[in-house]
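One thing: could you explain this record?
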Amino acid sequence: MTDARRLPDDFLWGTSTAAHQIEGNNTNSDWWFFEHQENPYVKEPSGDACDSYHRWPEDMDLLAELGFTDYRFSIEWARIEPAPGEFSNAAIAHYRRMVEGALARGLRPMVTLHHFTTPRWFLERGGWAAAGSDELFARYLTAAEPVYATDVAHVCTINEPNMVASMATAYESVISGRPLPTTGLPAPDRATTDALIRAHHRATETVKSLAPHVKAGWSVANLVCRALPGAEDVAAAYRRPRVDVFLEAARGDDWLGVQSYTRTLIGPDGPLPVPEDAERTLTGWEYYPDALGYALRHSAATAPGVPLIVTENGLATADDARRIDYTAGALEALADAMDDGIDVRGYYHWSALDNYEWGRYAPTFGLIAVDRETFVRTPKPSAAWLGEAGRTRVLPTTA
């Protein structure tokens, strides 16, 4: 970076959320259905979540007051198209009001078009792997055009498609009773992987045809596979279907989203459990802030020439001081990557709010605490610490 740890003036500085995780009562979605099935992976349903479907103005007020300049949020396909080919003008208008509300508060909106959830009818017809899924996705994006066609500079087509493909494998395991691996990520379903790549390219074409000014990309969960000596080939083989094919699909895009939280250690026989002496987060992951630097470098090498945006990075912890320490370390790794010429255009922290973390509320990633009964929002010290960089344009440190 040209000035030590100073952000470029046009650097995106924000937080991320996902509709299903904060809105509440997303009853027409596949995840709502999944939450209410008997399975060992869901500890509790999402319910009211953070009630952000109604309280989004308060959320945005807080983010703007804290100093953030950008906000990444998703729109919910299950609300916009509750039945095949039937579109809700009210839902479209709701999300358009969110775009306008962000701008009115000085927050540049990044709109995610798909963040893990689909309408239940889409699941019942076979999900992403069913024929014509890319056409249905494009139809939804065409209907949702009023949300993003003006005043939105960045659109994320699909959040973590590699995780979506792995969840397809997990879903089939739940239905069939087959066990999932005890370490590492399930192998992504191949048909779902191929369909998601088609859907991303179709979505990019659709968005560009309706709003040529919008910069389109997708975000990939970079697993940061760290090989033990002699296990480099094993790590590469493990990583390829889970990460690299999705990074390669982003070649030629306007930008690529990098999402990073921890690392996966790979030995001669595959992924290893978290070391016994390692600090763990509330998700059970290893505390490893340096992962972001590795993720940025690997993404840049696999999709050369594509600008990068960190669309998620954060820590599930009840100790906000550790959140600050972790984020400071991750930002140090980000700055080092930028100093080495990696083209990073922005950073969005996960998450703005303590929210529903896909099966439970216990892992708290939020910069802002949310009372589960009253929905009162309480910013944590990390929120002010991180938000201040939006005003000063200088990366924060713990010093």
Remarks:
- The mean pLDDT is 95.
- The CA atoms of residues 225 and 264 lie 5 Å apart.
- The two ends are 20 Å apart (CA to CA).
